[in-house]
Amino acid sequence: MATGRTHRPATRSRGIPEATVARLPLYLRALTALSERSVPTVSSEELAAAAGVNSAKLRKDFSYLGSYGTRGVGYDVEYLVYQISRELGLTQDWPVVIVGIGNLGAALANYGGFASRGFRVAALIDADPAMAGKPVAGIPVQHSDDLEKIIQDNGVSIGVIATPAGAAQAVCDRLVAAGVTSILNFAPTVLSVPDGVDVRKVDLSIELQILAFHEQRKAGEEAASSDGGVPAAAARSDSADQGPDGDMPAVMPA
Amino acid sequence: MATGRTHRPATRSRGIPEATVARLPLYLRALTALSERSVPTVSSEELAAAAGVNSAKLRKDFSYLGSYGTRGVGYDVEYLVYQISRELGLTQDWPVVIVGIGNLGAALANYGGFASRGFRVAALIDADPAMAGKPVAGIPVQHSDDLEKIIQDNGVSIGVIATPAGAAQAVCDRLVAAGVTSILNFAPTVLSVPDGVDVRKVDLSIELQILAFHEQRKAGEEAASSDGGVPAAAARSDSADQGPDGDMPAVMPA
DNA sequence: CCATCTTTGTGCACGCGTTCACAAAGACAT
DNA sequence: ATGTCTTTGTGAACGCGTGCACAAAGATGG
Fold this sequence. Notes:
- Chains A, B: Modulates transcription in response to changes in cellular NADH/NAD(+) redox state.
- Chains A, B: Pfam families: CoA_binding, Put_DNA-bind_N.
- Chains A, B: Belongs to the transcriptional regulatory Rex family.
- Chains A, B: InterPro entries: CoA-bd, NAD(P)-bd_dom_sf, Rex_actinobacterial-type, Rex_DNA-bd_C_dom, Tscrpt_rep_Rex, WH-like_DNA-bd_sf, WH_DNA-bd_sf.
- Chains A, B: Its main location: cytoplasm.
- The structure is a homodimer.
- Chain A is globular, with a radius of gyration of 22 Å.
- In chain A, α1 packs across α2 and α1 crosses α4.
- Chain A folds into two domains: 69 residues, Winged helix-like DNA-binding domain superfamily/Winged helix DNA-binding domain (Arc Repressor Mutant, subunit A, Orthogonal Bundle), CATH 1.10.10.10; 111 residues, NAD(P)-binding Rossmann-like Domain (Rossmann fold, 3-Layer(aba) Sandwich).
- By secondary structure, the first copy, chain A, is α/β, with parallel strands linked by helices.
- The first copy, chain A, is 42% helix and 16% strand.
- Chains A and B meet through α1, α2, α4, α5 and α6 of A and α1, α5, β9, β10 and α9 of B.
- Chain A binds a DNA duplex through α1, α3 and β2.
């Protein structure tokens, strides 16, 4: 969960709930895996387990898309893959630019998960003139002077910011001015954008800090209980953690 | 289930809402910036603007930690930095291991946001023997054969998984068996962990897919008058074939 | 010491998301 | 056709998070 929206004027009367949208990619991944194994149909129970969610939640999520299941049987895997892909807009090609080709930018450029899901890295952009022309992931880095031209020539509407924090807002402003309307921000800064532009933030250090909080709490409880002995995995069911996706409690196999 | 049933709102209520915990790092960052500019105090309104949240929400969040503000004045920046750091557990040192030193793992190792917040990269681990000994971010990569020993010798309780999806669950199992109780997972897989282990997931491709959904909706609304909404590019020839990003079957024999 | 002004802390209401539980719908066997 | 069995789709209840609005608390000035 990291949507840095500015204001929400409730433009979703007939729309799909945001929480559901955030889970659709999860279902899609599980379904793709089933598809690759040529599994024809899947029940909500099975698919929910694979995606790590509650089956009732999954069924309700799908109900927002329409009635794509067959009672007594389950869901047709291929059909559902198509429907979710279409709903997410993955049946079309999304050219993406990555700005800031440092370690993280390079990692993103090399990340295979993009191309396989309708995203195409249209350009890599960096402010360092020494980087210009140097190929990263097979794509030559271009200088940020040409940012506007690159955006417009490629019809880019999604931009990824992987610059240092200090440069992020300026880059963001230029991207938006050039026509980008969706931004994935890896820089540890709050970006301000005009209405109509979506920003999602991914912050590695924040995720770690949240883990540290729970870790500290676990350590404190353990010391306080003075139980000692076994780490008490099954004894106490606290763990009010839960990320945005909610992970399943599962029994350790071995 | 797995909800904190141990709520005891006495003198020290330990039940901080998850949503609040997730925002504390955000406040901490804004406060740190103020601290570096030697700003002595800040009002909830100012701080909320800097963190990109509602001021009432911020005040309520802080109220869970205690009454650290002064009415008519605001919050003491230094004091608040300390209190939040303590609450998040950042006043202690957290050794972290990163498993999977590919592009992403290397980027994480180089990421400065860790060290500055109490996190210390204790070791880099990779399964490739050719990587062993090679320094990344000044730290020599160690082979995964030594994973258990590394965890135990360094007292590591937080692990970062940046391996391909296919290796993630196995790595996760080994980490947990060795004593890790918090995992930050970058691999596109649902991890099964025993009770008491926290998992947070960061998935780059999911974030992009969510953006694509909104982007499509924006485009559809805009062109709703002329065209029929969906861009009719439904018949993709190579849409659902698996990409090389190594998605593994997330389906397990439940 | 009192009045006024600023800002916090929070009671309350509302809306979203989650979960339960079950009727409806279809497959399948006889 | 009819009954049984499985699984979906969803109405309803519940709990959490958010934001409003205001009283309490303290600073500040006369």
